[in-house]
Design a protein that fits this description.
By secondary structure, the chain is mainly beta. The chain is built from three helices and 38 strands. Among the domains are: 149 residues, no CATH class; 39 residues, no CATH class. The two termini are 49 Å apart.
């Protein structure tokens, strides 16, 4: 009976989760027409359509991300020449030879590359390729019947026509400008005339993702006052943005980006955009790589966690300088800390780091902030090189045991010899 009740309860919870995580797609479409008068009474009209699709929770109304795409089409003298249905490409120039139009347009292409010689993970980077088309008009009888098409030609053919024909630029928003700018470093925020597009993470010019689905138009942003602060952060005159999304309750004037995870403003210090209690933003500064301090307290700042050193004497605290410490340890005149946690039994005067997370004083051997109770003090030593068995790595030993870690977690493993 209990099993049946538990099964029904689990089923009911699953249904509730399914309901409350269900999404609907909200689609926003914007169009813009730009006209340009060409010689010989030719009127060029360019239509750009932008589409933003947002996944929003049906019950929670939470924003689960947006996708952005665009497409161009143009006509000359209304329907005399029509260019469309090319997807997210950008028309660049058009030339006329004996009234036959030829077009050059830009297209984004993702190509596979190998970052390292033995790299087994397929990565992609974006590049821009130029393509060329010739207009083929097979209409007849006042152009009421027949059809039109665009035929691909080579760059050489286009350039040959260009030598004796007139070429004109086609109005566009330079939508691939962010790809050209990737060589400069992190370029995630693309500022257009009246909007800003956020493109997911770029690293030294290499797009770690693929496809238009990883770009979207930012909402409630002023392009005229917008400034990119880092690969993730940007601001306009009123708001702070993280990965294209507006952050709540941030002071624009005092906001600082100090690292990938640390930002500050007049309200406090933020770790991964969550304010750390009792922090003071204006006075915060880094000490070394993993520690920071403000007028109120000291912090250990890990990769995906932080600790506040509650009882540290900030006036005498210093990071222990050793080759294998990796900024893990801090000591003041009375106490020692490992990654911001107090090593309660440690004696400051005799404390010594052995290697990374292993340390000792005159009485104990420590792993992290805990005493290794099974360790033999006199024979304990660091293994050089470390010993690997399956998914375990043993990097210390004494006369009785070997000490190490698994590849899956950082809990100390003790194995009898």
């Amino acid at each position: 009976m209990k099993k049946i009740i538990q099964y029904n309860l689990n089923y009911f919870i699953s249904i509730l989760l399914l309901i409350f995580t269900s999404c609907k797609t909200e689609t926003e479409i914007n169009t813009n027409v730009t006209s340009k008068q060409l010689p010989n009474n030719k009127l060029l009209e360019v239509l750009k359509t932008e589409k933003t699709a947002t996944q929003r929770g049906i019950f929670t109304h939470s924003d689960y991300g947006s996708t952005y795409s665009f497409k161009y089409q143009f006509t000359i003298n209304k329907n005399e020449v029509i260019w469309k249905d090319k997807g997210s490409v950008i028309p660049k120039t058009i030339l006329f030879c004996n009234d036959t139009p030829y077009i050059k347009y830009a297209q984004k292409k993702s190509i596979a590359y190998q970052q390292f010689p033995n790299d087994t993970i397929v990565k992609y980077k974006d590049t821009i390729v130029e393509k060329y088309d010739e207009f083929i008009d097979n209409r007849y009888f006042f152009k009421w019947f027949g059809d039109v098409s665009w035929q691909t030609i080579s760059k050489e053919d286009y350039n040959a026509k260009k030598e004796s024909c007139n070429e004109y630029t086609i109005p566009n928003d330079e939508d691939f400008k962010h790809i050209k700018n990737q060589k400069k470093g992190y370029i995630n925020y693309e500022v257009l005339k009246d909007s800003i597009i956020y493109h997911y993470v770029f690293y030294n010019g290499i797009n770690l993702y693929r496809g238009e689905s990883h770009s979207f138009k930012i909402k409630e942003v002023d392009p005229k006052t917008f400034k990119e602060l880092s690969k993730n952060y940007g601001k306009d005159s009123l708001h702070i943005f993280y990965k294209g999304h507006k952050l709540k309750k941030r002071d624009v004037n005092s906001f600082r980006v100090l690292s990938n995870s640390i930002t500050t403003d007049k309200y406090g210090v933020y770790f991964d955009n969550k304010i750390m209690r009792e922090s003071h933003g204006p006075s915060f500064k880094f000490i070394g790589y993993n520690y920071g301090t403000d007028k109120n307290q000291m912090y250990y700042l890990g990769l995906n966690f932080y600790n506040i050193l509650k009882s540290v004497d900030t006036k005498t605290a210093k990071i222990l300088d050793c080759k294998t410490c990796s900024n893990r340890y801090v000591a003041d005149k009375k106490q020692v800390y490992h990654e911001g946690k107090l090593i309660k039994a440690a004696d400051v005067e005799t404390f010594e780091v052995l290697s990374y997370d292993y340390s000792k004083d005159d009485k104990h051997i420590f792993y992290g902030d805990e005493i290794i109770k099974d360790a033999d003090y006199n024979s304990f030593h660091i293994l050089k090189p470390s010993k690997k068995i399956d998914n375990l790595t043993f990097n210390a030993a004494d006369k009785n045991n070997e000490y190490g870690l698994s590849n899956h977690n950082l809990e100390l493993i003790i194995q009898k010899k």
